[in-house]
């Protein structure tokens, strides 16, 4: 299920109006993409985190002049941790 969620999410990112990660996760939690467990959501969010961090580490530092790549990675990890806290625990 984790792979299916990830494939669907990244596919939706290529559309003209991509869905945000928080909205996608909320829809998945509500069962819009089929039955998912909290463990599935957590695995999906960690997979997204891994991909985003890899992208940030390869990004030209000039693309985000106000923040270092390390700061962006840390911000991304915090954002994913927040989503996991909201959707995967409880």
Structural overview:
The chain is mainly α. The chain has one domain. It is 68% helix and 0% strand. It is built from 4 helices and no strands. Helix 1 crosses helix 3 and helix 3 runs antiparallel to helix 4. 14% of the residues are buried. The mean pLDDT is 90.
Compile the SSE list and pairings.
Elements: H1 2-13, H2 21-29, H3 38-58, H4 69-87
Helix pairs in contact: 1-3, 3-4
Key structural traits:
90 residues, mainly alpha, 4 helices, 68% helix, 0% strand
Would you summarize the structure shown here?
By secondary structure, this protein is mostly helical. 68% of the residues lie in helices and 0% in strands.
Count of helical regions: 4
Percent in strands: under 5%
Structural class: mainly alpha
Number of domains: 1
Indicate the percent of residues in helices. 55-70%
Shape: globular
What is the CA–CA distance across the termini?
A: 20 Å
Uncertain residue segments: none
Taking Cα atoms only, what radius of gyration do you get, to the nearest Å? 14 Å
- Note the main sheet: none
Q: Give average pLDDT, whole number.
A: 90
- Element string (H = helix, E = strand): HHHH
Total beta strands: 0
């Amino acid at each position: 299920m984790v792979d299916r969620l990830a494939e669907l999410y990244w596919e939706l990112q290529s559309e003209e109006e991509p869905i945000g990660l928080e909205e996608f996760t909320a829809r998945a939690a509500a069962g819009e993409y089929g039955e998912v467990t909290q463990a599935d959501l957590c695995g999906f969010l960690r997979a997204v985190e891994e991909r985003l961090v890899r992208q940030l580490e390869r990004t030209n530092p000039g693309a985000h002049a106000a923040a270092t790549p390390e700061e962006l990675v840390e911000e991304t990890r915090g954002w994913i941790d927040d989503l996991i806290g909201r959707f995967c625990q409880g």
